[in-house]
Write a structure and sequence with these properties.
The protein is built from 11 helices and 11 strands. By secondary structure, it is α/β, with parallel strands linked by helices. The strands form 2 sheets. A 7-stranded mixed beta sheet has the order 8-7-6-5-9-10-11, with helices on both faces. Helix 3 packs antiparallel against helix 4 and helix 4 packs antiparallel against helix 5. The longest helix is centred in the C-terminal third of the chain and has 14 residues.
Length: about 280
Amino acid sequence: MTHLTLLHCPEPSAAARGQVLARIPGELVAAEGHWRLHHERPAGAEALADLRRLLPFDINTAPEGFEPDAVGLIVSDMDSTLITIECIDELADRLNLKPQVAAITEAAMAGELDFAGALRQRVALLEGLAEQELLKVYLERLRYSSGAALLAADARTAGIRTAVVSGGFTFFTEKVKISLDLDFARANELEIVDGRLTGRVQGEICGPEQKARFLVRLREQLGLRPGQCIAVGDGANDSLMLAEAGLGVAFRAKPKLEAAADVVIRHGGLDNVCHFFKAAP
């Protein structure tokens, strides 16, 4: 059986190629925007970790069971994944509460706090915020992560369905869905009365379990196998979702998620994910 490792780099130096082949012997072949290493023995976690410490670009092995030629679904987290900000932190900044809320967000994403409890605590601090401040955050502060638009476009060209799922809010996911031309979206809904946030979330909180269930529901709805799905996230609350996909991607992620992921992207953009599926001609 031949295994595949990807070097997410258009032109690795001779020294870098030598370091890779010394740890994972095989044949290196240039591909579009990256290099492919075909090897007979599995790439050990220790060898990959060693190379990630040494190389100035990302290197990842496609896991067994993943079907790169048959990918049918990509599900991505939103905050700090598809986009560069944490929307709830920026909303808190409108009330001069960003440091307090951001500290809770950081602990929740690192897996140090119960997600649902941490979300309720942060949303409660937003009580009284005017509804129009959400639009201001969207227009003034929301920016897409490097490669997000390219990933969405390449997936669309390849006939792959796409989704955004978030422990954040529908106000933002719906706009991201439209902007990137995604197929599905799921998030939390802020309760708004008389034009102001009440400090509460409506309905069931979209946390780790709900994110995973969302992927499973879409997978079953589309008639796909786990190996035909890719999940992308950055926080510990994404680990259950990544476990339901044939390829779980940790994008500039917290250590707990990196440890649970198949693929780690630290240097490149989200377009590195494109290297794992074969786009339609």
